[in-house]
Specification:
By secondary structure, the protein is α+β, with helices and mostly antiparallel strands. The protein has helices spanning 2-22, 25-29, 55-67; strands at 32-42, 45-46, 52-53, 73-87, 91-104, 110-124, 127-137. Strands 1, 2, 3, 4, 5, 6 and 7 form a 7-stranded mixed β-sheet that branches.
């Protein structure tokens, strides 16, 4: 049972990267619970401006990111080292490392971010959804 649930969560994590990189805002937001939260820590402290609460705000955040910050570039999320810190029948806590690259027309890909994601998961029906995504950016 645990192995199957781990695989289902790992699949959702792969979708996170693929959907963000495809700029599929609606599908990306649907990976989160209705009350899901995204935030970022920099130099060990929460960046208050980074907090996004609720699926609707996550959708708005994604659309705004694609229309502004990522308009002229292709992002790629590279994940590794997935570790399950906790796993029960309906909740989980995972951590993994990440590297984000961007590619602009006529230029070589370049690294824009690295760090660790900590994800709290909640099983809703037969799907695992993120209830809290925290990004810990490397300094």
């Amino acid at each position: 049972m645990h192995l199957e649930e781990r695989m289902r969560i790992a699949d959702q994590l792969a979708k996170y990267a693929q959907l963000w990189d495809r700029k599929a805002a609606k599908e990306f937001a649907e990976l989160f619970t209705e009350d899901g939260i995204m935030d970022r820590h920099v130099a060990g402290a929460l960046d208050e401006a980074s907090v996004v609460r609720g699926r609707a705000e996550i959708l708005s955040y994604a659309k705004a990111s694609y229309d502004r910050r990522l308009k002229d570039r292709q992002s790629r999320h590279h994940f590794s080292g997935l570790v399950f810190e906790e796993l029960s029948e309906d909740t989980a806590l995972t951590e993994h490392t990440f590297l984000v690259t961007h590619k602009m027309a006529g230029k070589a890909p370049f690294i824009v971010a690295s760090g660790t994601y900590r994800l709290r998961w909640r099983k809703t029906g037969d799907r695992w959804l993120m209830s809290h995504r925290t990004l810990f950016a490397d300094s």
